[in-house]
Specification:
binds nicotinamide-adenine-dinucleotide, globular, alpha/beta, about 375 residues, 6-stranded parallel β-sheet
Length: about 375
Amino acid sequence: MSVTTSPIRVALVGCGQIADAHLSQIRRIRFADPVAVCDVHPDLAYQAAVRFEVPAQFTSIDEMVETTRPDVVHLTTPAHTHAALTKKLLGLGCHVYVEKPFTLDAQESLDVLATAASVDKTVCVGHDQLFDPTWLTAKKWIQRGLIGDVRHLESVLGYPIDGKFGSLVASDSNHWVRKLPGGLFQNTISHPLYRITDLLNDSQPDITAHWRTRDDFDFPTELSVQMQGTKQTGSLTFSTDLPHQRITRVYGTDGTLDLDFDAQTLRLSRRTKLPGAFAKLEAPFQQFRNSCWNLRHNMWRFLKADIHYFAGMKTLFEEYYAHVQGRGPIPIEPDEIHRVALLMDRIFEHCRSRDDASENPMEDKSPQTSEAVSCL
Ligand SMILES: NC(=O)c1ccc[n+]([C@@H]2O[C@H](COP(=O)([O-])OP(=O)(O)OC[C@H]3O[C@@H](n4cnc5c(N)ncnc54)[C@H](O)[C@@H]3O)[C@@H](O)[C@H]2O)c1
């Protein structure tokens, strides 16, 4: 791939809820030039273009690509449209950044990845929390051996069902999220899942999974997944019954690392070295030093105006654009994209297999894929 230094031309398709986060992060990237936005609803395209000073807006993807010739298109449309629209954009000669979940299932992901390879274009998936400063620092600490070898990962997503994304899904039985084969989970669990797979060596660990419906809802809202690899295990909890939180805890042979993505803190607990009762002083002292580090670190980032909810998104965009320009490696390998898609399929299959067929909570409520795709 040849190296180019001219600004990268970026367009976005799908001016709904997450589009604002994309456009505001794209705007912060020095070498990105936002050239166009597109939505089937002209008002949404117009408003996004005005809010983020994007020079052109469209309701047709073909017209947008033909007129503005973007290098990269961000696809922020509903999940069931991802496969078809990504293939279309690849065919029109664009590299595509696809929001998570990459596709509806692993079969679609294989299809899209094969299309990208066949037209010599790339795709990237929105696994942005892997590029969050907290995650990047945690990985450096793990690589330095601070917690020894990773043996277990716990990933929790407390999902605010009354928040700005969740309330729309909860109040509208026809919302596209409710029609996904894995329902609410399909649209949300990529984040806690890839926060496990990034450090789990087994490509496809054994899975047990269970979903459950809260009394006050008519669709499954709670999910629990256990993963068993050769030497490592993982556990994923998604709950609408917990306060909003995005937490991952990494257990190693010499210590534990707690990552809180919202507080942007890292808590390192290492095996104490002092004997007996002295260890009871060493442990809180470690915690005190750790808290001081977090406070200093966050103060510094605050002063630099560098604390953003979607900070990982900006870094991932930058790395992907740099790759498209021939200046760096692909930030997320195609194999990893497919691996996560396959794991999601297996999680949902396992949940279904555990349900008594007559009481399958997804049976009546899960969508017909063809019906969902007809919204394209
Ligand atoms: N990374 C994150 O933290 C995060 C957060 C929220 C949503 N998401 C993901 O972003 C994607 C979109 O979610 P959302 O909540 O913004 O959805 P949304 O329903 O609010 O917006 C989707 C937009 O796409 C438009 N659209 C649909 N089909 C189109 C087409 N063929 N051409 C042009 N426009 C089209 C719709 O009109 C709508 O405006 C989903 O995959 C979701 O999982 C990611």
